[in-house]
Design a protein that fits this description.
single chain; about 325 residues; alpha/beta; 2 domains; eight-stranded mixed β-sheet; four-stranded antiparallel β-sheet; globular
């Protein structure tokens, strides 16, 4: 991680609600899906911030809202001290080339009617004034960078495997030399044998190009491998934020403890001695989250206080933040 800890992205009290309407003739706004509910964190230049949590917790929505693919309901997103929430569309376009996204599904995110060359050069068409020859040279350079044959420019996505398609998606994201790349579960739809190759490629590119990643994933062991710090989300809120070793070795939130107890350990002896925490029940609906702490319906240590008041998101140790009434720093 960058020793100086220069902040590239600041997310402050970010809220993203999706309105639910009812009625055929009169379309009434009846409820909101609280996908992201008052989330705050920083991303430092040159680091990888891992974002983990169960399906539906709001991870992808956070990533897309930072890039303004979704317009935030409220809150601030500062990118290199520029408040993106205050920019008009034409002003936002000037900053967009510095922020790119690698999508989850390499089968759905590539247009089957476009050649690989056209897909990778699309951002160059929008954000640069390159000549046709310069675009062709840049596309070939990017294909080499991600480990693909530069002669593949005239092929179509259906001619490639899942891992190769994801490399094409990575090349497209890097076309305009971004500072921040949001990786939205970039390996979840790939074979296990290919996942490590793609993660190693992302690490090589980060070291070579000085990239900053927001890495969204389910695979906790993979997130530990690639991340410098980790954010744990549950039902639209942050439960815990710390560096990866603190999260894995000394989790303080009951939800994080449950997640970490599910990560496989290669040592059978250690695995047999470890306490396995099984959470009961299902995740409540983001349409109607619980009163008080969002985790209270499944928390093994919840009390009346947890059902009455929302816990403060506080710093228990240096750079270790937790949202729990009963979390205490280890003695």
């Amino acid at each position: 991680m960058n020793v100086e800890k220069q902040i590239l992205v600041q997310v402050k009290n970010l809220i993203k609600y999706f309105p639910v309407y009812q009625g055929i003739i009169v379309n009434r706004h009846v409820k909101d899906v609280k996908a992201v509910d008052d989330v705050s964190f920083d991303i430092y230049k040159g680091e990888t911030l891992g974002l983990v949590g169960e399906t539906g917790c709001g991870k992808t929505t956070v990533g897309r809202t930072i890039l303004h693919l979704y317009k935030p309901t409220s809150g601030q997103i500062l990118f290199d001290n520029i408040d993106l929430t205050l920019l008009q569309e034409n002003e936002l376009r000037k900053v967009r080339n510095r922020m790119q996204m690698i999508f989850q599904d390499p089968y759905a995110s590539l247009n089957p009617r476009m050649t690989v060359g056209s897909i990778i050069s699309a951002p160059l068409d929008v954000h640069t004034t390159f000549t046709r020859k310069e675009k062709q040279d840049r596309v070939q350079e990017l294909l080499k960078l991600v480990g693909l044959n530069p002669d593949f420019v005239n092929r179509y996505p259906h001619e490639f495997s899942g891992g190769q398609r994801q490399r094409i998606g990575i090349a497209r994201a890097l076309a305009v030399s971004p500072d921040l790349v949001v990786c939205d579960e970039p390996i979840s739809s790939l074979d296990v044998s290919i996942q490590a190759q793609v993660v190693n490629l992302l690490e090589e590119l980060q070291n070579k190009l000085g990239l900053t990643y927001l890495f969204i994933a389910h695979d906790l062991s993979m997130v530990r491998h690639i991340s410098d710090r980790m954010v744990v989300m549950y039902l639209g809120k942050i439960m815990e934020l710390a560096d990866r070793n603190s999260i894995y070795l000394r989790p303080l939130h009951p939800y994080t403890k449950a997640l970490m107890s599910a990560v496989p350990i290669p040592d059978p002896e250690l695995s047999s001695r470890r306490e396995r925490i099984i959470l009961k029940g299902d995740i409540p609906s983001p349409l109607n989250p619980p009163q008080g702490c969002n985790f209270n319906t499944r928390c093994p240590i919840a009390t009346d206080l947890c059902f009455q008041s929302e816990p403060e998101y506080r710093e228990l140790e240096p750079d270790h933040y937790v949202a729990c009434h009963y979390a205490e720093p280890p003695q």
